[in-house]
Amino acid sequence: DAVKKSELEKVSEEFMQSPGGLIVEQLRLHLRSRINLLLLVVLIGVFIGYPLSERVITWLVNDANLVPSNASTEIIVLSPVELIMLKIRISTYIGLTLATLAFIVDASYYLASSDVVSARMEEADLKIPSPGINLILTFISAIVLLICGFYYSFGLLVPLLLDYLASDAASSGLESQWRLSAFVGFISNLMVASGLGFQVPLVVTILLRNGVVDTDVITRYRRHIWFSAVVLGALLSPPDPLSLGLIAAPMIILFEISLLVDRIV
Questions:
Q1: Which candidate, 167, 132, 158, places its Cα nearest to that of 65?
Q2: How many CA within 13 A on the CB side of residue 202?
Q3: Distance (Å, whole) CA 117 – CA 69
Q4: Which of 56, 77, 123, 134 is buried most deeply by CB count within 10 Å?
Q5: pLDDT score at 15
Q6: Which long-range contacts (CB under 8 A, 24 or more apart) does 135-141 make?
Q7: Residue 114 contacts by C-beta under 8 Å, 6 or more apart in sequence?
Q8: What does the alpha-carbon distance between residue 21 and residue 118 come to, in Å, rounded to a whole number?
Q9: C-alpha 182: how far from its chain's center?
Q10: In terms of Cα–Cα distance, which of 188, 181, 210, 189 is closest to 77?
C-alpha cells in the first residue's frame, strides 16, 4: 500500500508539473478567485427563475395541451410542499446554468491570455481559435439546432409519448395520475435529450472540416456509431422502446445527412 501510494503521489506530482497540470492549476486558482461572483450569479438566477418557473409549470399543466384528453389523466401533487420544492429546483437549475455559462466565458478569456496555455498550444502545434466568422457560424448553428431539438421534442415527441402512456394505461382499465414533479421532469428530460441529440450535425461537421476524423474512417465505423446513438438514446430517454426509437432515430438520420452534405460540399 505504501508503494502504491508513493507511485500515485509521484504520478500526480509529474502531472501537476506538466503543461496540462499547470493549466488545471491555473484554472483551479481562477475558479477560486471567482467563486463569490459565481455564487452571486447563481442567486440572481434563482431570484429570476423562481417566478418564471411558476409560469412554466402553470403553462405545462393547463395551457400547453400536453395532458391527453382521450384518457382519464390528471396531474396531482402528493405533498403540500411539492410545488414549492419543484419551483426551487427549477430556479436552482437556472442559476447553476447561468453560473456555468459565465464561468466558461470568463475562463476562456483567461486561458486565452495565459502564457502556459500558449506554450502548450505551440508544443502541440495548435492555434488558439480567434473570434471570427467560423466561430460565429458555429455558435449560431448550435443555437438553431438546439431550438430545432426543442421544437421536435415539444411538438412531436412529448405529446406522442404522453398520449401513448395514457392510452396504454386506459386500455388496461386504469386511470392515470401523474405526479407533478415527475410530469415536469419527464418533459424537461426529453427536451434536453432532443436538444443534445440535434447537435450531431454540428459535431460531425466540426470533426470532418478540421481534419480530426476522415470521412472514410467514420464510414467504416458507421455501425458502431449507430449503436452508440442507440445506447445514448437509451440513457437519455425513458425506459421504453418507443422513447428509445424516437430519441435515437433523429440522431442517426442527422448523422447520415451530415455525411451526405460533407460529400456534396
A1: 158
A2: 20
A3: 58
A4: 56
A5: 53
A6: 138/202, 138/206, 141/202
A7: 23, 26
A8: 14
A9: 19
A10: 181
User: In 10 A of CB 108, how many CB atoms?
Assistant: 10
Residue 131 has pLDDT above 80, yes or no: no
In 113-232, beta strands by DSSP E: 176-179
238: alpha, beta or left, given left = phi > 0 and alpha = psi -120 to 50? beta
Is the four-CA dihedral 143, 146, 147, 148 of positive or negative sign?
A: positive
Q: Per residue, what are the HEC states of 137-151?
A: HHHHHHHHHHHHHHH
N-to-C CA span, the chain: 58
Phi, psi of 177 (to 5 degrees): -125, 105
Cα separation values, 171 from 132, 159, 166, 177, Å: 57, 18, 9, 15
- The strand pairing partners of 74, in sequence order, are 177
Q: What's the mean per-residue pLDDT of the chain?
A: 80
The pLDDT value given to residue 62: 82
pLDDT of the residue at 128? 56
What is the predicted pLDDT for the residue at 12? 61
For residues 211-236, b (16+ Cβ closer than 10 Å) or e, as one string? eeeeeeebeeeeeebeeebbebbeeb
Separation of alpha carbons 30 and 59, rounded Å = 40
In tens, the pLDDT along 6-44 reads 666 665 666 556 656 666 777 777 788 888 998 999 999
The structure's pTM equals 0.73
How far is it, in rounded angstroms, from Cα 89 to Cα 46?
9
pLDDT at residue 125 in the model: 57
Joined grid coordinates for residue 168: 396504454
